[in-house]
From TrEMBL:
Domain Rab-GAP TBC: 238-448
Organism expressing this protein natively: Sinocyclocheilus anshuiensis
One of the record's GO molecular function terms: GTPase activator activity
Name of encoding gene: LOC107687627
Gene3D superfamilies, alphabetized: putative rabgap domain of human tbc1 domain family member 14 like domains (1.10.8.270), Ypt/Rab-GAP domain of gyp1p, domain 3 (1.10.472.80)
Region (Disordered): 527-571
Descriptive protein name: TBC1 domain family member 17-like
PANTHER family the record matches: TBC1 DOMAIN FAMILY MEMBER 17 (PTHR22957:SF360), TBC1 DOMAIN FAMILY MEMBER GTPASE-ACTIVATING PROTEIN (PTHR22957)
């Protein structure tokens, strides 16, 4: 292969880049109509690979991949579209022939280094990575890339190492305990060796019994004596239906864990007054006012449309004159008054319906919804940055677990995992039965064993479908179709066991990459800044303080932090 050729795609057809499998309101990328332009025939270009400087993949492609090549003169060429996969094969070929390496600063950028010592030495000189610009730089680099680049690169990948190491080099058998490797992150801040590590065996996990005795966790004044034990029991087996109405209000922050029964009565009274004040605000809007407020009018229109199609199979919401529909509508409208910035976004009705079904109370369901939205509100922001971040985190986890499956999805232009969008947006609401969702959500609300346990569930589902996906040789569209057809066909308990087993398997690996550790909550991201202890108290804290001032007994506050996860004994 001496040249790369490009042919402009035929125009005048619709190309659907992403079909999420549900209402188009949630689509990340819409269908684009290309203008018909037949007067210009297809054209192409050629480029000697000796003139190739870099290739860039689509940074966040939710559809088909494409590559943009840049010449050594700095000129970008028209994009190469890969409608049936092939980007990885091209990069692998360039890796062998031109030592194409992934940039340590940009995972989507690949730099081409021909097997020419002079050119390589010149490239290092231009980057000013090293003080020594003598001719023996390349030979020293080949003999010991880590010692030579340790001060110049913040990251060294195994891809980079393999591209420039001589095949006969003894470095091939070097262990991570070698003196040239950093022994901990503290010894060299910012340095990370990214390699494919071999995971240990995946342990067997069994589910437990649901929480069925609430009174045993309450002291004489009604405080929860051991919140962490409660959360662990809920994570292990869920909650019996008769206790959900009470326990959910603690899991979602309506009641503090350290509140007494008397304090909870005060909280409910104040929160009820606050709810109806907000409800009166939108109820009192006249038709004339509404005609002049497009935002209010738009929220009402969306809510009315979604309410009429949310969980209508459930008896609580079935029928045309069902009072449950009116409650669903009123709570969502009141939430728009509570959170003006976010308003109503499609999918919120899916989050509210189980809350309303369990609490059977307008006020309590509203405040439980605000607690739930505190966990997932970023999913509904217009920028969708949080959703993109979760898809990237999911990709990181799946890559660590199953590189073969990731390679296959990449080859079918499905490596972005966009078909998991709905799973993460509304926490699998449409993938499991209504009763299963009640169990799943209370488990996820415990935030055990980590905040991203829903991503581990997604990994568990994908790995359970690996044989079907790879064995049937699916393309992008059929992969999307297969995933959508899993609705109501998944066994929740098996997926939960698989997700927890994945967590234990990953956390038992001592060579896990820093990024994966951050996703699992094992390492605090460097950009994370803890909340100031002098931050403003919440309204609930104020109510508790007022209650204590009236003579209520004082109690030790619960710090709210998730403890270190204690894995179960695996057979």
């Amino acid at each position: 292969m001496k040249e790369c050729h490009h042919t402009e795609p035929l125009k005048g057809h619709e190309e659907t880049k992403f079909d999420p499998g549900y209402e188009p309101d949630w689509a990340v990328i819409s269908t684009v109509k290309q203008e018909r332009r037949q007067e210009h025939p297809p054209w192409g270009f050629s480029l000697p690979l000796s003139e190739l400087y870099s290739l860039r993949r689509a940074r966040f492609s939710l559809g088909r991949n494409f590559l943009v090549m840049t010449t050594r003169g700095g000129d970008p060429l028209p994009p190469l579209h890969f409608h049936r996969g092939g980007t990885r094969e091209l990069l692998k070929y360039l890796y062998v022939t031109h030592s194409a390496i992934r940039s340590p600063m940009d995972g989507r950028l690949f730099l081409a280094y021909p097997h020419d010592s002079g050119a390589l030495s010149q490239s290092f000189d231009e980057l000013h990575l090293f003080d020594d610009t003598s001719a023996d730089l390349v030979s020293r680099f080949i003999q010991d890339p880590y010692a030579t680049t340790f001060g110049g690169f913040s990251k060294v990948t195994n891809f980079f190492r393999g591209a420039l190491r001589h095949p006969e080099s003894p470095l091939g058998n070097r262990s991570p305990q070698d003196a040239h490797f950093p022994h901990s992150a503290d010894e060299e801040p910012g340095f990370e060796l990214i390699t494919c590590v071999k995971l240990g065996p995946r342990p067997e996990v069994k589910r437990g019994k649901p929480l069925d005795n609430w009174d045993q966790f309450l002291d004489p004044e009604g405080r929860v004596t051991d919140p962490q034990k409660v959360k662990k029991l809920v994570f292990r087996g869920g909650i019996v239906p008769s206790l959900r109405k009470e326990v959910w209000k603690f899991l979602l922050g309506f009641y503090p864990w350290n509140s007494t029964a008397k304090e909870r009565e005060d909280i409910l009274r104040v929160k009820t007054d606050e709810y109806f004040r907000m409800k009166v605000q939108w109820k009192s809007v006249s038709e004339e006012q509404e005609m002049k407020n497009s935002l209010f009018r738009g929220n009402r229109s969306l809510i009315e449309r979604d309410v009429n199609r949310t969980d209508r199979h459930n008896s609580f919401f079935s029928g045309n004159e069902n009072p449950g529909l009116a409650l669903l509508h009123d709570v969502l409208m009141t939430y728009c008054m509570y959170n003006f910035d976010l308003g109503y976004v499609q999918g919120m009705s899916d989050l509210l319906s189980p809350l309303l079904f369990v609490t059977q109370n307008e006020v309590e369901s509203f405040w439980c919804l605000t607690g739930f939205m505190d966990l997932v509100h970023q999913n509904f922001e217009e920028s969708q940055e949080a959703m993109k971040q979760q898809l990237l985190q999911l990709s990181l986890l799946l890559r660590a677990l199953d590189p073969e499956l990731c390679d296959y999805l990449d080859s079918q232009d499905s490596g972005s995992l966009c078909f998991c969008f709905r799973w993460l947006l509304i926490w699998f609401k449409r993938e499991f039965s209504f009763e299963d969702i009640l169990s799943l959500w209370e488990i996820l609300w415990t935030r055990l064993p980590c905040e991203n346990f829903h991503l581990l569930m997604a990994c568990s589902i994908l790995q359970s479908q690996k044989g079907e996906l790879i064995g049937s040789n699916h393309d992008f569209n059929s992969i999307l179709k297969h995933i959508n057809e899993l609705t109501m066909k998944l066994d929740l308990q098996s997926i939960l066991c698989g997700a927890e087993a994945i967590y234990l398997q990953l956390t038992n690996c001592k060579e896990l990459s820093v990024k994966v550790q951050e996703v699992l909550g094992l390492r605090v991201p460097s950009s994370f800044s803890e909340e100031s202890p002098n931050s403003e108290p919440t309204e609930t804290d104020t109510l508790l303080a007022q209650s204590e001032a009236r003579g209520a007994s004082s109690c030790q506050p619960f710090n709210g932090r998730t403890p270190q996860w204690t894995p179960p004994t695996c057979p």
